[in-house]
Specification:
Shape: elongated
CATH architecture of the largest domain: 3-Layer(aba) Sandwich
Number of domains: 2
CATH superfamily of the largest domain: Glycogen Phosphorylase B
Largest sheet: 7 strands, parallel
Strand content: 5-15%
Order of helices and strands: EHHEHEHHEHEHHEHEEHEHEHEHEHEHHH
């Protein structure tokens, strides 16, 4: 069987590398796909080759990246992709779309060649995207992409219900996963000594929807309470890039909050960063099914997350983490103080979170289920 892979609209290996996620695709998906299919075609939006990202000879032999020679407007590339690579699209027994925004060429291949496709539905673009023309366009692609898919992979029960409501024919619940061998508890580094500042970690994009302003606003009161209780203060560590960085740096300065800003880190290096943290915070207003939360929980870091749909699908308040109102810095501060001053609570949350991730979100097991689904869809075509 031949499998075609379609990234999100405008995506490719270089885009993943910019966020440190290329190894997740290569190790977590391409390798098991290559064992399960005779040939893989990866239809990229960006000028690139697989050899830029791996030296694995077996993978380079089995996977072909089909990329434009020069940068193209992503909308044009999406509409022209099946015309640019008709032989390869025709050869595919099934297409795997990594996010529903990437379904435009898959829908074209379905019309032209009868090729079925399976798409992930990991975020409700029609409901949660920022208002504006792009939101309406994403909602249209979302609706049509779900209806025309041979099968949909929903990452949460809520998204499964929404996909069915939008007309999807077949929806399988397969959540995002994490490499539980890579992301595992590690010994605390030497810097985690008594009396040192307690480190609160965030990993991800620096943008408004991630609500990092609330994290900064919550820190002074949490810091003061922690100093009273233990004599130690709080240090924030923010890892990632995005348009809000300068604004966040300025706000941290105004509030007198100690923050370390770090650029994007490649995924294989993240476990050591998680190991250095006393708590992980995710304050987003909206989330689909956040991989960073899964990673932190897998590493045994006590997690404090906003009470939004995507986070609630993973965290049970008081059992595997703490949830708070994302509009309330006071609520976040109270949760941070609890995990930093109650070692029994923190240890219990971390232990239960790790057990949950291993049991339900192991990437290897989830990708195996996905491959079974792809084989089933491909066989049903013939």
């Amino acid at each position: 069987m031949v499998l075609g892979l379609l990234p999100a609209l405008g995506g490719g290996l270089r885009e993943l590398a910019a966020t440190g996620q290329q190894s997740r695709l290569i190790d977590g998906y391409l390798r098991p796909y290559a064992r399960a299919f005779q040939r893989l075609y990866y239809f990229s939006y960006l000028p690139e080759s697989l050899a830029e990202f791996t030296e694995d000879a077996a993978l380079l032999e089995r996977v072909t990246v089909l990329a434009p020679r020069r940068p193209q407007w992503r909308g044009w590339r999406a509409r022209a992709m099946t015309r640019a690579h008709p032989v390869e699209f025709r050869a595919c027994d099934v297409l795997r779309v990594f996010q529903v925004t990437g379904a435009i060429p898959a829908m074209a291949a379905s019309r032209r060649f009868g090729t079925p496709y399976v798409t992930t539905y990991g975020f409700s673009y029609g409901r949660l995207s920022r208002p504006g023309p792009k939101r309406a366009l994403k909602a249209m692609v979302e609706r049509r992409g779900l209806r025309r898919a041979a099968a949909v992979i929903a990452t949460t029960e809520e998204l499964r219900g929404r996909a069915l409501a939008l007309g999807a024919r077949r929806v399988e619940l397969i959540p995002n996963g994490v490499d539980t061998r890579l992301f595992a508890p590690r010994p605390a580094p030497m810097e985690r000594l008594p009396g040192r500042p307690r480190r609160i970690l965030y990993v991800g994009r620096l943008s408004e929807e991630k609500n990092l302003d609330t994290v900064l606003l919550a820190t002074p009161s949490a810091d003061a309470e922690l100093r009273t209780a233990s004599g130690a203060g709080i240090q924030l560590m923010i890892v990632g890039a995005g348009p809000q960085k300068e604004e966040l740096q300025a706000l941290a300065g105004q509030l007198g909050v100690e923050v370390e800003f770090h650029e994007v880190v490649e995924q294989r290096r993240l476990p050591e960063i998680y190991a250095s943290a006393d708590a992980f915070v995710l304050a987003s207003f909206t989330e689909g099914h956040p991989k960073v939360l899964l990673e932190a929980m897998a590493c045994g870091v006590p997690c404090v997350a906003s009470d939004c749909e995507g986070n609630r699908s993973i965290v049970t308040h008081g059992k595997t983490g703490l949830l708070f109102d994302p509009h309330s810095p006071q609520a976040l501060a109270a949760c941070l103080v609890r995990v930093l001053t109650e070692p029994g609570l923190a240890a219990g949350l971390a232990r239960a979170a790790r057990e949950l991730i291993v049991a339900r979100y192991d990437l290897e097991a989830l990708v195996a289920r996905e491959i079974d689904l792809l084989h089933d869809v491909a066989r049903s075509r013939s």
